[in-house]
Every structure is written in structure tokens, then in C-alpha cells.
Design brief:
The structure is a single chain. The chain is of the alpha/beta class. About 20% of the residues lie in helices and about 15% in strands. It is built from 5 helices and 7 strands. The protein has helices at about 30-35, 80-90, 110, 135-140, 160-165, and strands at about 10-15, 45, 70-75, 95-100, 120-125, 145-150, 175. A 7-stranded parallel beta sheet has the order 1-2-3-4-5-6-7, with no helix packed on it. Strand 1, helix 1 (about 30-35) and strand 2 (about 45) form a beta-alpha-beta unit. Helix 4 packs parallel to helix 5. The longest helix has 10 residues, at about 80-90. The protein is globular. Residues about 20-30 have low confidence and may be disordered.
């Protein structure tokens, strides 16, 4: 997989992880591979779902590298932290679809950064218990968000949820709520 990252013209990349670490047979993706990934600035789609062994802060280099063509980013269950999310928002300003399902290490303030993604249409925040009212209120300002996957969370109250669904400029057409 590491050699594939040396393809400068690569536009679609999927790096598969596994559900259980015990079954993992491949070498985990670490900092060196992410550094090589930063050379693939033509990417339009990146799927790194279930890459459990990513190190905290591995996406911080996205602060200095830009991915202007990246539209779809799938990072389900990758153990991201708030700083990683902030770097991704900074480096990938044109995201249309973002899957952050199951990244329980991201604290509430990290989700607020998502409100800067003005082209974001589809967002999956399922199984992120630390999403709070402030984050949901900030996400209400996303100008073209049409699909939100959300829940379960203890940090969102009726105040935050009401603000989100009653926002005067809401473009939301699909809301998927996971209750458990």
C-alpha cells in the first residue's frame, strides 16, 4: 500500500482497516504513510475507514498541505482527535461528504470546526458521544448540508437539537438518528 501512495496523479484511494485488531495481518498505517499520502494532492476521494492504528495527530500535516479536489472523506473508526479534525477542515476546504462515525476521542469543540466546510452536503456523526449543543448549533450554519447521520449522544439537549432543526436557512432533507 505504501508504494501506491507514490502515485502523484492518484485521485481515488481506499485503505481498508479491519474490525478487530486481532485479525489484522497487514502493517498498520503510521506517520510515514500519511506523509506519503500528503503528496497525493489530486485526490478526490479518500477512504480510510477502520484504520484503528492511526496515531493521534497523524493528520496535523493537513494544516500545511492542501487537498483542493478532495470531495469525499471516509474516516470511520480511526481514533481521530479534535486536532486532527481541525487540520482536516483546514486542508480539505471543499469536502462534500464526510464520515466521522465512531471517532469517540473527538471532543465537542472539535466538531465546531466542521462549520467552516461550506460545501459539506453529507455528514455522518453517528457514535460520537461527545457531540454537544454548541457543535450542533454551529453545524446548523452549514449552507448546503442536506444529510446528517447523528446519535447516540448525551451531550445534545433539546435546546441544541431544536436550534439545529429550526434554523431559518436549513437545507437539511435527510436526518438519520441512531438512538442506541
Amino acid at each position: 500500500a505504501s508504494t501506491a501512495l507514490e502515485l502523484a496523479k492518484l485521485v481515488n484511494l481506499k485503505i481498508s482497516g479491519v474490525w478487530q485488531r486481532e485479525q489484522q495481518e497487514e502493517v498498520p498505517l503510521y506517520q510515514e504513510e500519511v506523509k506519503k499520502l500528503l503528496q497525493c494532492t489530486n485526490l478526490t476521494s479518500l477512504n480510510m475507514d477502520h484504520c484503528f492504528d492511526l496515531q493521534a495527530g497523524c493528520f496535523l500535516p493537513f494544516n500545511s498541505n492542501r487537498f483542493p479536489f478532495l470531495r469525499d472523506l471516509f474516516l470511520e473508526s480511526c481514533h481521530l482527535e479534535a486536532e486532527d479534525l481541525e487540520a482536516i477542515v483546514h486542508g480539505c476546504p471543499n469536502l462534500v461528504q464526510l464520515n466521522l462515525k465512531g471517532n469517540s476521542a473527538i471532543i465537542a469543540s472539535g466538531f465546531i470546526h466542521l462549520s467552516r466546510l461550506n460545501q459539506l452536503e453529507v455528514l455522518n456523526l453517528t457514535c460520537n458521544a461527545k457531540v454537544g449543543d454548541a457543535a450542533l448549533m454551529a453545524l446548523a450554519d452549514l449552507p448546503v448540508l442536506r444529510t446528517l447521520h447523528f446519535g447516540p449522544t448525551k451531550g445534545v439537549t433539546n435546546v441544541g437539537f431544536s436550534h439545529f432543526i429550526q434554523h431559518p436557512y436549513s437545507t437539511l432533507t435527510d436526518l438519520v438518528i441512531a438512538l442506541s
